[in-house]
């Protein structure tokens, strides 16, 4: 029956052909899930994305119809929800009906709605097995837990197929046990809760997985505990974290969970990022880390990206990692936030690069021209990266592209005293 729908609706058929030609991923999804064809029969729904509260409400309504003990159907519903909205946002970007920033908003809100429900499912499962953990003051954690987003999801800059950089934090009493029939200590409870969340997000079902998850930005990285107490997280950031970890914290924000724990996280973040710093040392550490990344991840022949042939068309340009690209802009923003947020705390209000650049301009720390150049270059690079992702290609373009943007980014990089 679904095979005749496009024939009966020429507009839907035209959209189908345009979108499949622009994105092999969409074509593959249509082959695997032909029920998605009905998305093209409602142009208003396809090209009018919902706002964050509407997305969250829609997903809640879908899940509330499924029995709480039917995990398989809950996982499928989550995946169908993501597939449907991923299709809509891809279609909106391909046709130009949504600009880059709105596309990333949509993809980020979609992830937040899913994470809210995944946490709720994992919490109900964990409490049913072991009871509820308590805080040091004896009150019950409900949930006393937050999912913190770093990287693209933290910076409200998700792209098509982006993974999620996450950190889990709780405020449970590590000396206490849960209050259920099979009690376990709080640390064990929250570790299992975190494991359950990752399982729900990453398990491959007939409809695929929700997201790949990267937990390496947690305290002590891959060797650290999966879930940190709020106190342990604060101590680590204060005493042990490297400068690059503070750079990452610039883009960190609470995605879902306890409002109280979220508020305490924001206080820790502001205190850590707003501390007084030796600017010469900071510039050296940021520059050293960036050089290592270029050496290991970029395509240029030299770490600085200033080889004589760096701008030849035969040399490919890695939009993210090469000199003058996305990461250079991100590192400048992070350096500026660490260097100047003590005097200008407003720089920490937002976690996305565009609004931090606007804050630097408003504070007079970047000229209007340079701030505008960086914003426009950043958006141009990300738009190109989105196009590559829709084609299921790496974020590398031919070397004859973005010469002026790259040179300007490199000029401002040097102007900031970075090397």
Task: Tell me what the CATH architecture of the largest domain is.
Answer: 2-Layer Sandwich
How would a textbook summarize the main sheet?
5 strands, mixed
Q: If helices are DSSP runs of H or I spanning 4 or more residues, what is the number of helices?
A: 17
Q: State the helical fraction.
A: 55-70%
The helix/strand series, from N terminus to C terminus, equals HHHHHHHEHEHEEHHEHHEHHHEH
Total of domains: 2
User: Rough shape?
Assistant: flat
Instruction: Report the mean per-residue pLDDT as an integer.
Output: 91
Oligomeric grouping of the chains: single chain
Overall strand count: 7
State the separation between the terminal residues, measured CA to CA: 62 Å
Task: Using the coordinates above, name the CATH class of the largest domain.
Answer: Alpha Beta
Instruction: Report the CATH superfamily of the largest domain.
Output: Beta Polymerase, domain 2
Percent of residues in beta strands: 5-15%
Structural class: alpha/beta
Fill in the CATH topology of the largest domain: Beta Polymerase, domain 2
**Spans of at least 5 consecutive residues with low confidence:** none
From the alpha-carbon coordinates, what is the Rg to the nearest angstrom? 23 Å
